[in-house]
């Protein structure tokens, strides 16, 4: 490795570290704080995420302020109203607001492709944040969300560390050019192992379920990462925004968490 590449990697690592030191306390605080504070953080996050999604998926001809505001407002209302109801009624609200988005932007003569991306974004932003709050309301919700956060973050961090140290062949070179087999596999193992250790102490589950669920959450985080990478490649951008140095945008950090929350929903309600 030449000196310029080494300095570039080191600078990027420092940027990621400082951004992580900013984000991690917010994540943890949103989990352990009161419901009112959590709702505030969730709603603020939803506005940032929906704005970023709109900006990257809608072409310049549709980036009018009123369109952005309308999209963000519908997501905001869906999440806010969902925090006041039970989970299944919140799903009804999500379907209702999906139809509202379709009609609102269809009548504005958006092409079908743009409209499809808006609906993807609505579900992608709304559903995991609603799941987050609904799980937080359960008896062991705080520990469950901390378990999820530990697995997702440690998988991501150790995938990055091992990938840069060991290197080797890329696992998805056209989709995620920096993700290696070594980093991905060791990240999954490390994240799952830490999840098992945490859940063994704080969650009352059989060990075989702890192992299976921890692996499932870790793997779902990887899928979330690949999903947003696919979206970025589709629109030929490197990051969803530049708000977080070394990471990109909030969507770049939300990717793994979002899929992890969806997997957690299926674990919580169906398994």
Summarize, please.
By secondary structure, the protein is mainly alpha-helical. It contains nine helices and two strands, in the order H-H-H-H-H-H-E-E-H-H-H.
Task: Please describe what this structure looks like.
The relative contact order is 0.12. A two-stranded antiparallel ribbon has the order 1-2. It starts with a helix and ends with a helix. With 271 residues, the chain is an all-alpha fold. It contains nine helices and two strands.
Question: What is the number of E strands?
Answer: 2
Portion of residues in helices? over 70%
Residues in β-strands, percent:
under 5%
Taken from the alpha-carbon principal axes, the silhouette is: globular
- Provide the residue-averaged pLDDT: 85
Instruction: Please state the CA-atom Rg, rounded to the nearest Å.
Output: 19 Å
Element order: H for helix, E for strand: HHHHHHEEHHH
Helix/strand layout:
Elements: H1 3-32, H2 35-57, H3 65-82, H4 87-106, H5 112-136, H6 141-166, E1 170-172, E2 176-180, H7 181-202, H8 207-234, H9 250-270
Helix pairs in contact: 1-2, 1-6, 2-3, 2-5, 3-4, 3-5, 4-5, 5-6, 5-9, 6-7, 6-8, 6-9, 7-8, 8-9
């Amino acid at each position: 490795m030449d000196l310029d590449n080494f300095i570039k990697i080191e600078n990027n690592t420092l940027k990621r570290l400082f951004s992580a030191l900013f984000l991690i306390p917010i994540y943890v605080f949103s989990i352990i704080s009161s419901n009112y504070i959590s709702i505030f953080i969730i709603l603020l996050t939803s506005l940032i995420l929906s704005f970023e999604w709109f900006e990257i998926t809608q072409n310049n001809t549709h980036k009018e302020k009123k369109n952005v505001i309308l999209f963000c407002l519908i997501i905001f209302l869906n999440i806010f109203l969902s925090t006041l109801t039970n989970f299944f009624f919140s799903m009804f609200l999500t379907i209702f607001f999906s139809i509202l988005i379709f009609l609102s932007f269809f009548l504005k003569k958006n092409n079908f492709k743009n409209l499809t991306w808006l609906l993807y974004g609505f579900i992608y932003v709304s559903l995991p944040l609603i799941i987050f709050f609904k799980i937080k309301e359960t008896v062991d919700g705080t520990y469950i969300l901390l378990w999820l956060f530990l697995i997702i973050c440690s998988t991501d961090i150790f995938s990055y560390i091992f990938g840069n140290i060991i290197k080797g062949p890329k696992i998805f070179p056209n989709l995620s050019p920096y993700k290696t087999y070594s980093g991905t596999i060791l990240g999954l193992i490390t994240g799952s192992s830490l999840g098992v250790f945490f859940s063994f102490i704080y969650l009352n589950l059989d060990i075989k379920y702890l192992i299976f669920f921890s692996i499932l959450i870790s793997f779902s985080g990887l899928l979330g990462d690949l999903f947003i990478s696919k979206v970025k490649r589709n629109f030929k951008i490197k990051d969803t925004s530049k708000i977080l140095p070394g990471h990109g945008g909030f969507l770049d950090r939300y990717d793994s968490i979002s899929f992890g929350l969806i997997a957690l929903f299926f674990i919580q309600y169906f398994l």
